[in-house]
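Quick note —
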Amino acid sequence: MTKIVVIDPGHGGKDPGASANGLKEKDIVLKISKYAKAALENNYEGAKVYLTRSTDVFVELSERANFANKKKADLFVSNHVNAGGGTGFESYVYTSINGGSTEKMRSAVHYEVKKVYNGFKDRGKKKANLAVVRETAMEAMLLEHLFIDTKKDANFLKSDANLKKVAAAEAKGIAKALGLKAKSKPVAKPSPSSGGSNNLYKVQLGAFASKANAEKLVVELKKKGYKAYIDKE
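Predicted structure written out below.
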């Protein structure tokens, strides 16, 4: 059965979110969200993924929640970047959540993402009265990816390679939360050129009227590790 996931890149358009160290929150979370969508669809079976925004546009908080509700999503994940002089990664669910499937799903995602932030503080799994986790009808969580106004954190977030790792971990956590299976990777069939054939092909490198020149070439080839011999016609 297909699982529907809505990933929400926070802020956008006229609302840049937090800004510092040459970065804007809206840009970082859009990248993470797009990478996570691609990772889910490319690597796991049975996932249909939607983004609340795929470009730099402003979307009201209620519209984000309504979008997920209309899609009848099985899971909602909102990506953000923190600010305020701290450091590290943290995640949120709604204040009234006390155990249950939402907490289990959040724990699965939190666990995978925090591993990518090795060397940064794990600020823990928290609760808050946030609109996007309050107004969504399905299990929902909000992730705060490091602090944009802390240099160490910002330097990490400046790397697209790092953001792809974060997104891959987020996708893995979502897959675990929803019980999605990894897609099997196709096994390449051996070809004659890769040694997978019983055929044997020989290449003649040269023909010489002088035996001395032929012997000289054989010596050079053997020095380079090739099997070489003289075949007199």
